[in-house]
Amino acid sequence: MAKWQRVKYHPNLPLGADGTRVTASKEHIEISKNAAKEGMVLVKNEGGFLPFKRGQKIALFGKASIDYVKGGGGSGDVTVPYVTNLAEGFKKLSSEVSVFEGTVKFYEKYVRDLYEEGKMPGLIAEPELPQELLTQSLAFTDTAVISISRYSGEGWDRKADNDDGRKHKDVAQDLVDETDKLFERGDFYLSKAEKELVDKVTAAFPHTVIVLNIGGMFDVSWIKENEKIDSALIAWQGGMEGGLATAELLLGIGTPSGKLSDTFARDLADYPGTEHFHDSDDYVEYEEDIYVGYRYFETIKDADKKVIYPFGYGLSYTNFNLNRVKVAVEDDKVTVKANVTNTGKYPGKEVVQVYFGAPQGKLGKPEKTLIGFKKTAELLPGQSQRVIIEFNVGDMASYDDLGKVQKSAYVLEKGKYTFYVGTDVRNVKKADTDYVQDKDEVVCQLTERMAPVDLKKRMLSDGSFEELPLGDASKYNDNILKDVELEGPLHAMPKVRPVEYRHSFEPSGKPQLEEVADGKISLDDFVKALSDEDIAWLVGGQPNVAVANTFGYGNNSEFGIPNVMTADGPAGLRIQPQVGVKTTAFPCATLLACTWDPAVAEQVGIAGGEEVKENNIGVWLTPAMNIHRSPLCGRNFEYYSEDPYLTGKMAAGMIRGIQSNRVGATAKHFALNNKETNRKNSDSRASERAIREIYLKAFEIVVKESQPWSIMTSYNIINGRRASENEDMLEGILRGEWGFDGMVTTDWWTYGENYKECKAGNDMKMGCGYPERILSALEKGGITREELEKAAKNILGLILRID
Length: 803
Known about the structure:
Blueprint: H1 5-9, H2 26-39, E1 41-45, E2 56-61, H3 86-92, E3 97-99, H4 101-116, H5 131-140, E4 143-149, H6 173-182, H7 192-204, E5 207-213, H8 221-225, E6 231-234, H9 242-250, E7 264-265, E8 283-285, H10 294-297, E9 307-309, E10 320-330, E11 333-342, E12 351-357, E13 369-375, E14 384-392, E15 398-400, E16 409-412, E17 415-422, E18 428-430, E19 435-437, E20 441-445, E21 457-459, E22 465-467, H11 475-479, H12 513-517, H13 523-528, H14 532-538, E23 552-556, E24 561-568, H15 589-594, H16 598-614, E25 619-621, H17 644-659, E26 664-670, E27 683-685, H18 688-695, H19 697-705, E28 710-713, E29 717-718, E30 721-722, H20 727-737, E31 743-745, H21 754-760, H22 771-780, H23 785-801
């Protein structure tokens, strides 16, 4: 196929064998279902009640049996040919299980009627269960399955206990109002109607199983503490076949092997990032510093008592034994080996997790930090596998932002480093071998970047707080981002160049980008041939063509630059419903993280990337990989975990899979985008240590391990400076320290100034640019031709990578 044949001409060329389409194909939907089964987490199974035996009779309760949430809303939504809910999943397995029809019909009518009224899936109140149905279902079976679902989306956050009359400055006030009506204390907890349903069913039935169709952290204390609940499966938001995947696991068609990628605490207020989450729409203070998730719960005194299910936790239908654990340190490399044996009755997989504990020293450290993991193959009863996990000694270093040991450096403080091997952060055993650091050592000397200007204090490992020196936000403009007075509105209507087609095959006389691809001319020479106006248009988004609705990159036919389309993700290729193209909805990112298997993410990335390519899209705006700092972030379903290491490894797998198709992946949102309320103008205030160790670490992993072709900056401000205008983050860290060689784009319609973004290392302004303002800034000295050429080369470099 000729270079850019798809993106230039949009031929309808299926990628499948014998001319079949891969988009929403049977094979891709099967990949989605199997991935869902890998990440669902069994958190309770008293007496081995699950799996159900063949011929089991069950009664389904809860509107979520029908009102299934495949994933979150906003840009992460997917237009699909169908969604299989839990009731339909069991119906497909009717040879294995008998389902009481009375409650199914009751909930089907209830949900259908509300859908017809315009209610959204996941935003429907739990109805009161008629006593007659309860009596009839008890005559049918002694086993109940209660489903509870949750829905959230882009542009709005979840409600805290004390939130009343929330007002969002963004686009989703109607959704905020709807959820506030449904949940008295916020959707972290059961609503009054849901609690009444659970109480009524558990009081009547001898056996009860809970299914949680959720996208993020949730109150599960009632599950653990209610003796009448036999079993509980966190089924997450499993994509278009999530209902069938759930039903298969409950019936033993597969064994649960998911592990929690987050800590599940008793109360919303138990998460340290939640206390001041909604204090202001204008800023968020990350006072808990590096003590996020299990780093907090396993370190701070008495915080461990707040945990219901710890990070990394997950049960199986079978049992495993870890033995012959050996740790060896040689040439600054740590090698951990362990035997995993299936000692139970079912085939299954186990995840070996390795944590380290560092000396407290002068900096203070978490009690445990994840540093390696490996999921086994499926082991038959009695079968064993030798697992090997390796990492470098330098990976245990901590960042010293204040100079307690060595300022602006990753350091290994002297003392003993211990290793823990097991199957969750608490179910671990200390290894016999330690690593002893004889003296303080600088592992990597860096430069101060992104230091706080308003954060006054941060948490220490003993739970106390230390005061922080405050920097000067004005230094940024004094540094490189000089203000120049420009004419015209910054936030005007979309400004895009018309799609250009040369109707003549006569040569334009100008160099062609394909000549760069063929090695006939250099990219440097090509860019120098572009006029100032050409480059000013190039650094902004271009109009939609074909099935796209998120705009494109390039679009200059005179120089043979194609108009390369982008598309949203990450739970599948997002194409607007009115286009009529249906794609595969894969499980949400949190579920994928709970697989603890980058190979699963890579397989999803391969399949999703094929659909992107088949629909003539060049760049997929995925994976989203911000940290689960608090359960309140409405977009947590799009992100992986509270842990940056797990996040980075899973996202790296996704990127490898996507880009194997020669289409671009875009890691987002760079960075500290942990709140949706007023997301375009909220200041994320964090220490440099927390920024580097927690919020940038996953991005560092993917840049170094999977080389994404593109990165998207976030809307928010970071320590007084917009992410899209943050030269420290983009030029200093991303390109300077990590060696990133791809293209950086803004999120769509940021509040940043186009020329400042470009000057700071943010190459592309989406969904449109402001060429007049770029040219005015160039004329007035706000930006140089050389800086514009650098951005142009990064954009064209991305286009050149695409087939």
